[in-house]
Amino acid sequence: MQNFEKIKIDLQDKFATIWLNQPEIRNALNPSIIKELIKGLKWIEKKDEIRVIVIRGNGSSFCAGADINWMKKSGELGYRKSYSDSKKIADCFKTIYQSDKVIINLVHGHAFGGALGFFGASDFTLALKDTQFGLSELRLGLVPSVISPYLHIRVRPVDVKYQIFTGKTFTATEALRIGLVDYVCEDINEMEAKVNELIQDICSVSPIALAEEKSLLRTLNRNLINSKNIMKTVKIITKMKMSKDANVRMSEFIEKRK
Questions:
Q1: Are 60 and 242 in contact (CB under 8 A)?
Q2: What's the mean pLDDT in 144-168?
């Protein structure tokens, strides 16, 4: 068993659960958790008996997006270091997207910014009805660039633009309407029952055929998700992090939160 601090992994019969485990910062994404998440995903990927990976958050929220303190500091470190940090996030979602396992998110509390990248890169997302969602990057002088390709394979362009351009917080009902999530659950008991049913159904199909189908879907989506586009998204978020506008806006956000 691998040793992790920022995530926890539970192995069951045919599925694994990855818990984002930084509840003190609402599981915000920073280098430590990103590194462990990629390592954990690659470790599970090698286990042929595992068919499904469930991703969920420990504590009050699924994931608050990228850690703003990290984003601000990264933007002050020069282009090369800032680019390297941006690429870490892109590599995380790429690892999820390229998995031959079926990946399911169980979402509660808050899912903001980069957290929505999990939904597009994964296969299914279940959310509790009181979950709050948001794409507030533009309010911080940033752009949700590295997650954009994944959002666009799930959600109509007009709906993606509305949420990005307004930066408003929206409900699980709205997330379901636009196709960002697949099912809204009344409570945790319904969520557990629904995901167990889904896992059982998935585990009844041929794993070889399933992996082939996931590969086919990636091929069909190659116009959106490919190395060239991913590199472009990394360059954009690096540029925005380093801008004076973003520095001021992120500083104001951090002070307001304090």
A1: no
A2: 97
- Secondary structure of residue 65 in the 3-state scheme: coil
The answer to whether 80 and 130 have CB atoms below 8 angstroms apart is no
Contact by Cβ (8 Å): 46, 216 = no
> CA angle, corner 84, sides to 80 and 88, nearest 5?
170
Which of these, 24, 161, 18, lies nearest to 95 by C-alpha position?
18
CATH of 7-189+226-257, one of 3.50.30.60, 3.40.640.10, 2.60.120.820, 3.90.226.10: 3.90.226.10
Q: Which of 193, 62, 186 shows the shortest CA–CA distance to 128?
A: 186
69 in Cβ contact with 254 (< 8 Å): yes
Cβ neighbors of 251 (< 8 A, separation 6 or more) are 72
pLDDT at 1: 58
Residue 228 CB coordination number (10 Å): 6
Cβ(133)–Cβ(170) below 8 Å: yes
59-89: per-residue pLDDT in tens? Answer: 999 999 999 999 999 999 999 999 999 999 9
Burial class of residue 237 (count of CB atoms within 10 Å of its CB; 0-12, 13-18, 19+): buried
Which pLDDT does position 258 carry in this prediction?
A: 72
Lowest mean pLDDT, pick from 2-16, 32-46, 154-168, 170-184? 2-16
Name residues whose C-beta falls within 8 Å of residue 78's C-beta, 6 or more positions apart in sequence. Answer: none
